[in-house]
From TrEMBL:
Keywords: Amino-acid transport, ATP-binding, Cell membrane, Membrane, Nucleotide-binding, Transport. PROSITE patterns: ABC_TRANSPORTER_1 (PS00211), ABC_TRANSPORTER_2 (PS50893). It holds the Pfam family ABC_tran. Gene3D superfamilies: P-loop containing nucleotide triphosphate hydrolases. This is Branched-chain amino acid transport system ATP-binding protein.
Amino acid sequence: MSTPLLQVKDLKVAYGGIQAVKGIDLQINQGELVALIGANGAGKTTTLKTLVGMIKPVGGEILYDGQPTARLPSYAYVKHGLAMVPEGRGIFSRLTVEENLQMGAYTRDDKADIAIDMERVYQLFPRLKERQKQLAGTLSGGEQQMVAMGRAIMSRPRLLLLDEPSMGLAPIIVQKIFEIIRMIAAEGVTMLLVEQNARLALQTANRGYVMESGKITLADTATNLLANESIQHAYLGE
Ligand code: ATP
C-alpha cells in the first residue's frame, strides 16, 4: 500500500473552552473523493480549516504525504498542494474573474504552465471564459462558486478541500457544480468534500465519514452509507 495522501490521527480542535473536534481519525488515499457529512455545527468546517493550517489543533497529528504538517508555516500549505474552496466562496469581488484565477497561482512562477492551467479552467468552466473581464462581485452565486473552484485549481492542488459547494445554489446549478467535481476527480485530483446535501455528496464520493458533535461516528464506502438505514433517516430524508 502506498502512503495515504492525508492521515489524521486523534485530531482535537478547540475554540477557547469549546471543543469543536474531539479526537477524530481520517484517511484519504491518492485519487479518492471522500465526503464528510454531518449536521450544522458538527465540526466539519473546523476540520477543513485545521487541515489547511488556518487553525492550529490542540491535539493529535496530521500527516500529509507521510509528513507531519505541524511545522509547516501557514503560507506553505498551498505550495505543498493543499487547497481549500471555502464556504461562502471567499472570492475577491472587486477583481475580475481572470484576476481571481491568477490569484490562485500566486505561489507559482512557472508562467507557461500557469497559462495552460488557465485554459484548462476555462475548458471546465466555459462560462468563466465568457466573463473573464467581468468583476467577480457581479456574478451569480453559481458563477462565483466556479471562480472559487477555478482559483483553487490554479494552485495545482494534490488535495482539494471543498466546503459546502452547493450552498445557496439552485438545484440545476448544483448539478452542474457536481458534474465539474466529478470531472476534477477524474483528472486524478484527490478531494475531501464537506456537504449538507448528503445524498449528492455520497452519490459522488468513493467513501464517506459521518461527523456528529465533534466525533466521527461512522466511516464506510459511499454505497454502504447510502444503504444504511440510520443514515437514511438522519441525513437522507427517508
Ligand atoms: P456548518 O455546517 O454550520 O458550518 P460545521 O459542521 O462545519 O457546521 P463548525 O463550523 O466546524 O461546524 O462548528 C463546530 C462547532 O464549533 C460549533 O459548535 C460552532 O458553534 C463552534 N465554532 C465554530 N467556529 C467558531 C468560532 N470561531 N468561535 C467559537 N466557536 C466556534
